[in-house]
Design a protein that fits this description.
This protein is mainly alpha-helical. It is built from seven helices and no strands. This is VTT domain-containing protein.
Length: 140
């Protein structure tokens, strides 16, 4: 139970705007108890998805503070083009370093549909954690 809470909270924090990676933690926990890999992957995916939804909501709140011109310039420019071009499908990349947090933030700022956005974030992050788990199990 402690391992599930640990991976959930680690994955949640890693998905917010705080630095950190939960993949190493997941691999280490799978190494300690390989029979729990499914539960660990589910909890990591849920925690990381909820962390990204925190960024989504921060983006929605930021809509009151940032103008479209401010968002179209600087560090958001590339992410904004991706989200505007591919819509909620771009959130399959929410797991990606550097741009993933920005994609979720922009999805909220653009008021993309919450349910569709959540599903895409969940799928992208779930696939990533399944790959990490497969690699961890392979090297046991």
């Amino acid at each position: 139970m402690t391992a599930l809470w640990l991976i959930f909270s680690g994955a949640f924090l890693a998905a917010t705007l705080l630095p950190g990676g939960s993949e190493v933690l997941l691999a280490a926990l799978i190494n300690q108890a390989p029979e729990t890999w499914v539960s660990l992957v589910v909890m990591a995916t849920l925690g990381n998805t909820l962390g990204s939804l925190t960024s989504y909501y921060l983006g929605a709140l930021g809509r009151f503070a940032k103008t479209p011109e401010e968002m179209a310039s600087g560090r958001y420019r590339h992410g904004l083009r991706l989200v505007e071009r591919y819509g909620y499908w771009s959130l399959l990349l929410a797991w990606a370093p550097l741009i993933g947090d920005i994609l979720c933030l922009l999805a909220g700022w653009l008021r993309m549909p919450l349910v569709k956005s959540s599903i895409m974030i969940f799928i992208g992050k779930g696939v990533r954690y399944l790959l990490v788990a497969a690699l961890a199990l392979h090297w046991l």
